[in-house]
Amino acid sequence: MARITASVYTSHIPAIGAALDLGKTQEAYWQPVFKGYEYSKAWMKDNKPDVIFLVYNDHATAFDLDFIPTFAIGTADAYAPADEGWGPRPVPVVQGHPVLAAHIAHSVIQQDFDLTIVNKMPVDHGLTVPLSLMCGQPPTSSFHWPCPVIPFAVNVVQYPVPSGQRCFALGQAIRRAIESFDEDLNVHIWGTGGMSHQLQGPRAGLINKAFDNAFLDQLIADPAAAARIPHIDYVREAGSEGIELVMWLIARGAMADVAGGAAPRVAHRFYHVPASNTAVGHLILENT
Fold it and tell me: Hey, which residues are catalytic here?
């Protein structure tokens, strides 16, 4: 059967993608950010999965206020990088895994979670920046991402948004779905977005290091408690865009210990302030 061997958590800040694309990674401002992912790129080469299930949020490229799915799973063969107003990022087309994606959709819907099935959509920085951070920037036009990716978009832009508890339970349903797939596949599940940040209003630029690091501690040691954090606490403590952290709970809910297995091994943890107008958080957990 297929199995989840690791979960990856990372911010997906658009300015990181711009720094990569414009060759600014060695500038003094950006060096500490990218240094935090050097281990991760080596780890990724040594632990290459067959498929990545990547949880992210769309930023008004595939969806807009005319159509806002709470949970949307990509079931296409491929996903082109989106044009977010200054042209698509110069990164490869993302190859999908439609067979596994369709299986997960069927299984999760049968577990009473309503998913929107999407057979065509562009993918923006929310998905491509994590891939660049973990897999490296394409050196040539012939570069391909190391494996297929199943995009899973979550609405954390327009209220109402799903609760942390709902996301945590959804992660458990996704694990059951993957483990019921009868092909021997090594799957990673990634939760992206966050950490604390606010993009508008009087608190624009808010960063809360104490909240961010407490969240990382709790995500590792007591994810059920992290899942109980109410929306208002994210807004108060982590800013209006801090709600993106509920997407990390989908990935964490899919880990083995939540279903009675052994606690995961912390392979890597990284936190840095600032990157653009937000904090960078990153974590790799391995099932043992």
Answer: 125, 197
